[in-house]
Amino acid sequence: MNFLGVLTIFVTVLGIAIDGCNCKTVQFIFGDSLSDVGNNKYLSRSLAQASLPWYGIDFGNGLPNGRFSNGRTVADIIGDITGLTRPPAFLDPSLTEDIILQNGVNYASGGGGILNETGSLFIQRFSLYKQIELFQGTVELIQAKIGKAAADRFFQESRYVVALGSNDFINNYLMPVYSDSYTYNDQTFIEYLMETLKAQLKILHGLGARQLMVFGLGPMGCIPLQRVLSSTGNCQERANKLALSFNQGSSKVLDSLTKTLPNATYRFGDNYDVVNDLITNPHKYGFNNSKDPCCSFYNIRPALTCVPASTLCKDRSKYVFWDEYHPTDSANELVAKELIKKLGLMDGGAPSPAPAAIAPSPKSAHAHSPKSAHAHSPTSAIAPSPEG
Ligand SMILES: *[C@@H]1O[C@H](CO)[C@@H](O)[C@H](O)[C@H]1NC(C)=O
Ligand SMILES: *[C@@H]1O[C@H](CO)[C@@H](O)[C@H](O)[C@H]1NC(C)=O
Ligand SMILES: *[C@@H]1O[C@H](CO)[C@@H](O)[C@H](O)[C@H]1NC(C)=O
């Protein structure tokens, strides 16, 4: 073959790579301990750790894997059901460009919040700004590997999950040692959180995120820790009200971004009602206990974390809570299935990149009550890009 022939083949191969980006659809996950799959394991000074038994007892080989649960996270389960691979932790030493292109990345970190100052008592954790900074590094890495045009396409076709907020209350605003607790009141704190979240989602859009889900907060006043801190053992109504305000605010932020940012589909996954019902009527869902952590240390409460000397409940699938803060695998499964149903993630054969087909029109989205899931779709339909 002559020189010209080689050159032609070379140009053709390169052309396909740049135009088509034969990339898989993968997920990039931003979150806290509810979505952490191992980042904090590598943050050696972090006090938010799930690195001891019995974390992970119902996952893989049963050894701790960094998840703050006995089993899977909600994002694990949603991905499994909708056909997306589980992204590895950003700090996983085996992470390479090829693994990122095949699986995405999970930046979630136990103790992290929307605000930089949240969770500072844990010493080390990735707050959402930090997670976005790390994602920017990932974008640059992939651009260097496959070129800017292909990378743009890859990141625009990927799925994004943003699931933070409970630490901004539990490990910040509701704890008097944090200055936010006396600098703000309920209303101004929520406004501060919403402004911050909005700015963060705009940065993500600028980095290519187009199909993004934000998970709302559950009734965080009912986690075992909050119950044990109340004098009656009941849920803390103030924390629950804050969760509801957070959910309403986030839903509005997504509505407004949908109107202003081009080509983006934002979905708000509100699980408050189903978790609240599960906690109030556990038997209805086949659970037996929605008040106590399955993993506890004799009768010493709060137990703070699950340790090897702790005792486990008899049937982990019957408990809503695994430890003082985090749900069990079976509660996560219930939440994941509810979110899939509410967000219509299985309608129209997700994960095909056709958001127009799986998201209701903005009109029908507004018909939902503020507490139900909202699907936010852009007013202009997203045409499949011609070079596909
Ligand atoms: C939050 O932290 C990031 C670094 O992770 C920094 O770039 C940013 O300026 C901080 N933002 C605020 C409002 O403190
Ligand atoms: C449910 O819990 C009660 C005690 O709270 C216990 O007596 C009963 O055996 C449990 N049932 C199941 C199915 O685990
Ligand atoms: C939005 O999508 C259209 C059609 O695919 C494309 O031409 C346009 O550049 C996109 N705009 C942005 C800001 O991504």
UniProtKB/TrEMBL annotation:
One of its GO terms (biological process) is lipid catabolic process. One of its GO terms (molecular function) is hydrolase activity, acting on ester bonds. CDD domains: SGNH_plant_lipase_like. Residues 355-364 have a biased composition (Low complexity). The keyword Lipid metabolism applies. Residues 365-374 have a biased composition (Basic residues). Belongs to the 'GDSL' lipolytic enzyme family. This is GDSL esterase/lipase. It comes from Quercus lobata (Valley oak).
